Amino acid sequence: PQGSEESKAFVRALLKRSMPKMKDEAIQDMLNRKAVVLEHYPQKKTKQKRKKAKGFTAKQRRELRLFEIEPEQQRYAIFLPLHELWKQYIRDLCHGLKPDAQPYMIQSKLLKADLHGAIVTVTKSKCPSYVGVTGIILQEFKHVFKIITKEDKLKVVPKLNNVFSLEIDGFISYIYGSKFLLRASERSAKKFKLKGTIDL
Fold it and tell me: Would the keyword Cell membrane turn up in this protein's UniProt record (predicted)?
């Protein structure tokens, strides 16, 4: 082990090398008056930014035809099991759809429910050709329903200016499409007003 003199000599030599422009007297003065702090600068760790998984753009989805139903799949009978699943889903959601259930409670549940698989009928429309169209909802978008009819025809029915009726276990609910211009995911979190203007 080094003695005190060797340690002093080492510190002087280190300071002389570290600060070559300073005179010996200034270095000695620094030793006598100040504590020397040997600074250590740790290397900063660069945080790697997590790359968010990017989904397809609307243009890419159209090009890949992700939401298109193939013509051979456009058959009403194929989607009847989906309708049966939907009915069970609504019964569970509304706690059984009992005769003494409050209509307002069922209506509020249906407003936020997923309608894929529901059988709907266009009861009123500003376009007469849509009135009477009945079928299973295959896809719901912000502005349209895609419905498969019993004649195995895929109909694209706009929500705007149309009124739809939906029947399950004797309970009939009416959907005013003009107030329904939302995606299914957005509708589940929306608060619907109790009162409002009812129009097409």
Answer: no
Residue-wise burial string across 32-71, b where 16 or more C-beta atoms lie within 10 A, e elsewhere: eeeeeeeeeeeeeeeeeeeeeeeeeeeeeeeeeeeeeeee
Whether the model pTM is above 0.70: no
Give the residue from 179, 172, 178 showing the smallest Cα distance to 119. 172
Tens digits of per-residue pLDDT, 9-63?
A: 887 787 778 777 777 777 777 667 655 555 656 667 777 777 766 778 878 878 8
- The order of strands in the sheet holding 144-149 is 154-158, 144-149, 134-140, 119-125, 162-168, 171-176
CB burial of 93-118 (b: ≥16 within 10 Å; e: otherwise) equals ebeebeeeeeeeebeebbbebbbbbb
- The 10s digit of each residue's pLDDT in 135-180 is 999 999 889 999 999 999 999 999 999 999 998 888 888 888 888 8
How far from 83 is each of 28, 45, 120, 175, CA to CA, in Å? 92, 56, 11, 18
Beta partners for residue 122, in sequence order: 164
List of residues 6+ apart from 85 with CB closer than 8 A: 117
DSSP 132: T
